[in-house]
Design a protein that fits this description.
Layout (H helix, E strand, L loop, with lengths): L6 E5 L6 H8 L5 E3 L16 E2 L2 E2 H6 L1 H11 L3 E6 L8 H6 L3 E7 L2 H14 L19 H25 L4 E4 L6 H10 L21 H4 L3 H7 L26 E2 L5 E3 L7 H11 L13 H10 L4 E6 L2 H14 L7 H11 L13 H18 L15 H9 L6 E4 L3 H11 L25 H10 L1 H7 L6
Parallel strand pairs: 1-5, 1-6, 2-5, 6-7, 9-10, 10-11
Antiparallel strand pairs: 3-4, 8-9
Helix pairs in contact: 14-17, 17-18
Length: 474
């Protein structure tokens, strides 16, 4: 695989995330992407004058000169980004060459169109500092969008047909995949690189993470104009979280009971596991855990009629628990580096230790600051990872679906009744009562909760509220 390709091309369009993809490709020691090498208006980047000694006039005279230079003289495997309106003289050569690795980056055309219109209005085409973000709304133009869509679709069909007729395969990357470290490392492996990234590039930020309805000035007119194109799903809740895997090692099965618990990392996991152990008169250590996909398949085969379940927790309670246990708490189980970054960049002023002078007002201010961070973090505008304890529960369940969905999704406030029902269906006539976990917080949530906190949490976890119908916590 190491010598399968000599160079690569990223087929993309404006506002599809190609800058972010390039930044991560360039983070691999053996790869170098030279920007929009064949953009008719500049060479590489708007302020560049040459690529590897080839100037724009030289490229205009002979585009194959630049192509050969990138192929042969890059410091590593060279490549570039190519849009549908770039120099057409090299396209046929690229498509016909099996030694050229094809990466196809795609994004919902409505999203890319709206993003393009906003960038035009603000003059901001990249964002590295969220505080310097410029805000504007797009004005939807039906004729302009239809022309935009037609050109994108025609180019994608051209790429597909060329690959099919020549027996080649491209590496397809969706805009939503760009935040997935495993996908980026997989792409590098496909290109023949043995190096792997430990984290994604954190410089570029999502510029417009709000729903389309908040980004388009004449949204109602856009809905009406595109009513026949329902595949765009205009009213969806935007999701910029990285895709999550099934996290099979976190699953827990009964010591004897044919029950499989699939945790959502929401603060109730330990209490549910304790109930599952007590069901068989066992200890938590006796539960079957640390599954691999192979051992999970074996367990399922050995337990015909088993039931699997997950537990939803109200987002307000869940995120408060995550804040207290992972950020605010002292000792083990905390994220001190993230806490330090929150203090420095978001002004939370979190203490290293929570003392007796830590008041409810202090706690409320710190929690609201954490919610401000999460709005940026879950929108893909922060270099800090989206941790499993505060990612959306819907995203975790979506990751489960890649392997197997739980039979039942229970609600934490209904666990006493629902766990008893689940146990009886598994053959237990007198199941133990479920003991709700005590609140491990220096200041109780009830002491700071109000409508403002509910609204702030709902803005961060809109997808969970919409997907699961959560109402107010109190």
């Amino acid at each position: 695989m190491q010598d399968r390709f000599d160079y690569f091309v990223v087929f993309a369009e404006m506002r599809t995330g190609s800058n972010f993809l390039e930044a991560n490709l360039n983070a691999f020691p053996g790869l170098v992407c030279h920007g929009e090498a064949f953009n008719p208006h500049f060479i590489g980047y708007p302020n560049s004058t040459e690529i590897l000694g080839v100037t724009q006039p030289m490229r205009e005279e002979d585009p194959t000169l630049l192509l050969e230079t990138i192929k042969r003289h890059s410091d590593g495997m060279g490549g570039f980004r190519y849009f549908h309106d770039h120099d057409p003289r090299v396209l046929e050569t690229l498509l016909a060459d099996p030694r050229c690795a094809k990466i196809v980056l795609t994004r919902n055309p409505v999203d890319s169109y709206v993003s393009w219109k906003i960038a035009q209005a603000t003059g901001q085409w990249k964002l590295t500092n969220v505080k310097k973000r410029r805000d504007s709304k797009a004005l939807f133009d039906r004729a302009e969008f239809e022309a935009h869509l037609a050109s994108l679709q025609a180019f994608q069909v051209q790429l597909l047909n060329a690959l099919q007729t020549s027996g080649q395969t491209a590496f397809y990357v969706a805009y939503e995949d760009l935040q997935d470290l495993d996908v980026m490392n997989g792409l590098a492996q496909w290109l023949g690189q043995s190096d792997q990234l430990e984290e994604l590039d954190g410089k570029l930020k999502k510029q417009n993470p709000a729903p389309l309805s908040e980004k388009v000035e004449n949204f109602a007119a856009m809905e009406e104009a595109l009513a026949h194109l329902d595949q765009f799903n205009l009213t969806r809740t935007p999701n910029f979280e990285p895709r999550r895997g099934a996290v099979v090692p976190s699953y827990v099965a009964g010591a004897k009971a044919p029950l499989l618990f699939m945790p959502l990392r929401n603060g109730s996991d330990t209490a549910v596991a304790r109930w599952l152990a007590v069901l068989d008169g066992a200890e938590v250590e006796d539960l079957v855990s640390q599954f691999s996909q192979k051992t999970l398949r074996i367990w399922k085969k050995d337990h015909p009629g088993f039931r699997s379940f997950s537990v939803l927790r109200h987002p307000v309670e869940r995120v408060h628990d995550a804040f207290c246990s992972k950020i605010l708490a002292t000792g083990g189980g905390t994220y001190p580096k993230i806490r330090k970054t929150l203090n420095r960049r978001f002004g939370l002023e979190l203490p290293d230790e929570v003392g007796p002078d830590y008041s409810a007002a202090d706690h409320r201010a710190a929690f609201l600051g954490f919610l401000d961070f999460l709005k940026v973090n879950l929108s893909g505008q922060s270099g800090i990872r989206v941790d499993a304890t505060w990612c959306s529960q819907s995203q975790t369940l979506q990751g489960f679906a890649d392997l197997a969905q739980p039979d039942m999704i229970l609600r934490e406030d209904e666990l006493p009744d629902m766990l008893a029902l689940l146990a009886r269906r598994a053959g237990y006539d007198a199941p133990p009562a479920y003991a709700r976990p005590p609140e491990m917080a220096p200041v109780p949530l009830q002491a700071i909760y109000d409508a403002d906190i509910e609204a702030r949490v709902a803005a961060v976890y809109q997808k969970d509220y919409v997907s699961f119908g959560f109402g107010s916590w109190a």
